[in-house]
Specification:
The protein is mainly alpha-helical and 107 residues long. It is built from three helices and four strands. It folds into two domains: 47 residues, no CATH class; 36 residues. The strands form two sheets. A two-stranded antiparallel sheet has the order 1-2. The protein has a two-stranded antiparallel sheet with strand order 3-4. Helix 2 packs antiparallel against helix 3. It is rod-shaped. It starts with 16 loop residues before the first strand and ends with a helix.
Length: 107
């Protein structure tokens, strides 16, 4: 049989829901509601709004090429440098030296 969660603040009252931010069980008297959800305090409501705003900013950065574009560019540059190093190493140096250089560079 499942045990009824009790309010985090009022231990003698059954919890109606959990805070959207910290997940504490809260009774109907403790619920602070706004458009973002139900919270145990205005502090938790503010944290949820701040998180949502940062999350939206991160989505905008990625959708406008800030994150993904930079990552792809970096990978292409690394692969290009590795190819050049292997070519030069194969032509002018012993391949073992070339591989050591790549390993030291972390590639």
């Amino acid at each position: 049989m499942a045990r009824q969660a009790m309010c985090f603040t009022h231990h003698d009252r059954a919890a109606k829901t959990r805070c959207k931010t910290c997940q504490k069980p809260i009774c109907s008297g403790c619920i602070k509601s706004d458009a973002a959800g139900q919270f145990c305090s205005f502090d938790c409501a503010e944290k949820a709004k701040d998180y949502a705003q940062r999350d939206n900013e991160d989505i905008l950065k990625v959708s406008h090429g800030g994150g993904v574009e930079a990552l792809v560019k970096g990978v292409v540059e690394i692969v290009g440098l590795a190819a050049v190093a292997l070519f030069v190493g194969g032509k002018f140096l012993k391949i073992g030296i070339c591989l050591k250089i790549l390993k030291m560079a972390g590639l």
